[in-house]
Amino acid sequence: MKSDSKLDVCVVGLGYIGLPTAAIIARAGCKVLGVDVTQSVVDTINRGEIHIEEVDLDGLVHGVVARGLLAADTKVAAADVFVIAVPTPFDKNHAPDISYVLAAARSVAPVLKVGDIVILESTSPVGTTEEIRDLLAQLRPDLKMPGMTRETPDVTVAYCPERVLPGRILEELTNNDRSIGGITPRCARKALAFYKIFVRGTCIATDARSAEMTKLVENAYRDVNIAFANELSIVSDKMGLDVWEVIRLANRHPRVNILSPGPGVGGHCIAVDPWFIVHGAPEDTPLIRTARGVNDGKIRHTIAKAEALISAHPTARVACLGLAFKANIDDFRESPARLVAATLARRFGARIQVVEPYADGLPREFDGTGATQIDLDTALEECEILIALVDHDQFRVVPLAERAAKLVYDTRGIWPDQPKPGVAGEGESGLRLAS
Ligand SMILES: NC(=O)c1ccc[n+]([C@@H]2O[C@H](COP(=O)([O-])OP(=O)(O)OC[C@H]3O[C@@H](n4cnc5c(N)ncnc54)[C@H](O)[C@@H]3O)[C@@H](O)[C@H]2O)c1
After folding, report:
1. Is 320 a residue of the active site?
2. Tens of pLDDT, residues 109-161
3. Hey, whose CA ends up nearest to atom 3 of ligand 1?
4. Segments of the chain with pLDDT less than 70
């Protein structure tokens, strides 16, 4: 390998993961080519600008582009290390779609040379890294691939998943521990040496399949535990209990840590990745599959409760607070808040207003509904019903004085001081009807 900072790195896929990764590797001194199939993404980055919202990313990208360490293109070029960070969605049957990953590997194959490292970072079903290796072997029979030869392979192939939190991506990319799974132990060691260039967390070598499963397990763990909290919230509703109070008290147990319920589970990871495990072992995953069902069911439950509240107050104007899938980010993918707000907009039309400080305009599904986007101040002045769908900091800090007289459905438990109902709806978790 060349000396660390002399490496040429090609990052394929410049989204929420690929762009920050490319920028951080460039900051460490490597020359980075970022590749994306979307021309506008490439143009934006080459101007030193960014197309996604992420804390401190704009300054970092501006700096590394200005210093000539990061450039973007739509075409892959020769490099020493290839990092693939393209989407891995699922299809309508929840089967993982690795076509983007295979397309990215196909684009790398022609420029691959002896000594190169290919690392997959996309969340992937178990066995995908081996599929990439097999594809590269097929496309480049001139190169010896790891695990297929007794001789020293020409190329390193490894898997290294991301576990970053949107909003803290730059910090977590640097400081989180990383599992680095090689097709062979040698591959893991070589990939690990690369990550050491820019990762301060502990890098742990393992095999590719274990690393793939580790990523899926992390998100399935979160999903199952959130499902427990969401199930409790529905049960508490039925029993006339305040779920937040129950959880707060239960968590005083030294070995209990119940997560927070919400309007469902969204995002590109937790709502998606558990299906990759289910798909790989459909007979053996009743718990993971059920958790998915519980969390999806919570979205329907939230819609039904919101509809009941709005229908009971036919002249009230309604503010849906938040569309993002979690707090303080501009990511609306698979977002339960977005689904709830859009469903309400379709049913109640212009009565529905949406407050989302992280969006310039409403997503397409709101077209023709009559719903509009307003700012928080206007919502607090003009709307009688507040439906808190996302726990953005801006919403959390709204003082009681500005919402005490509102009808509030707090799906995130952000306003524990909201007066409890003294009328119909008493005891319903999160449904806090003030006078
Ligand atoms: N966003 C997260 O917080 C997060 C966290 C952990 C893991 N992941 C995983 O990382 C992977 C990437 O996710 P993301 O959020 O960055 O996705 P994204 O949609 O934000 O970005 C992916 C980018 O890849 C580009 N692309 C698609 N096919 C391409 C190809 N063949 N060649 C070049 N570019 C291509 C797209 O145009 C897009 O810009 C996924 O597998 C995801 O599950 C994401």
Report:
1. no
2. 999 999 999 999 999 999 999 999 999 999 999 999 999 989 999 999 999 99
3. 166
4. 1-5, 421-435
Which one is catalytic: 10, 30, 187, 215? 215
Report the nearest-CA residue for atom 43 of ligand 1: 123
**Known catalytic membership, residue 383:** no
* DSSP codes joined into one string, 1-58: ---GGG-EEEEE--STTHHHHHHHHHHTT-EEEEE-S-HHHHHHHHTT--SS--TTHH
The arrangement of secondary structure in 4-209, i.e. its CATH architecture, is 3-Layer(aba) Sandwich (3.40)
Task: Give the closest residue (by CA) to ligand 1 atom 18.
Answer: 15
Q: What is the per-residue pLDDT across 347-401, written as a single tens digit (0 to 9) for each?
A: 999 999 999 999 999 999 999 999 999 999 999 999 999 999 999 999 999 999 9
Q: State the DSSP string of 337-390.
A: HHHHHHHHHHHHGGGEEEE-TT-SS--GGGTTT--EE--HHHHHHH-SEEEE-S
- Which mutation among 21, 99, 268 tests ligand 1's pocket best, with the greatest number of atoms within 8 A of CB? 268
Within the chain, all domains assigned CATH 3.40.50.720 are found at: 4-209, 220-433
For domain 220-433, which CATH number applies: 3.40.50.720, 3.40.50.300, 3.30.390.50, 3.30.930.10?
3.40.50.720
